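Today's session is about reading a structure prediction critically. Students often jump straight to the picture, but the first step is always the sequence itself: look for stretches that repeat, for charged clusters, for runs of hydrophobic residues. Only then move on to the predicted structure, which in these notes is written as discrete structure tokens rather than atom positions. Here is the chain we will use throughout the hour.
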Amino acid sequence: MNNLLVQVAGGLKTGGGDSSYFRIRQLEAGVGTYRDLGNGWVVGGLAGYGGGKSSRRFEDGGFEARWDTVRFRSYAAKFQKLHAEVYVVRDESWLNTGHLSYGAALRLAQVRFTSLTDQGIAIPLNQMTRVEPMLFISSGNPDAFPWLQLRLTSSLSVSLDEGKWPSPDERIRNTKEGRLFTSLGLTIYPHRFRE
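Below is the predicted structure for this chain, in token form.
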């Protein structure tokens, strides 16, 4: 079990207001490995699976729309995703100099929609690939739980193919646009259970 990493993360974003919102609920898990480079630096990779659902509502046409011509987009999605990522971490807890670690990761995610609609009408998009650069900070208590860290992650999720080959369908372009996400998760190092 040396160098085994298990990661569980979830995200919840609730929307406010009546006319415009973005909500998402997702949960994912991954398994991977890492290598200690010394001096608190760690590199690694993992692969995982997750799923969730989201909804988004906004006014189509910007701020200039007249009240009698206002049109709203109302998207709803259920999805599953496979992901793979590589990361680098500066882990102060391994040096016994603190309880903090921070780092960056790059994730490639294949999102598969089990349902994707606009106002209940199906959108013809079954899957998309997204690239997600991430920054994170983790904290734990090495004296009580040396095998566990709480991780806060912020990521930008973009679909690279939409920039090169934009879809003629506005609903697909809206679905593929870049988004900023924040998640809270747990990182478990099984080999530290005996410490």
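Discussion point for the tutorial: The chain has a mean pLDDT of 84.
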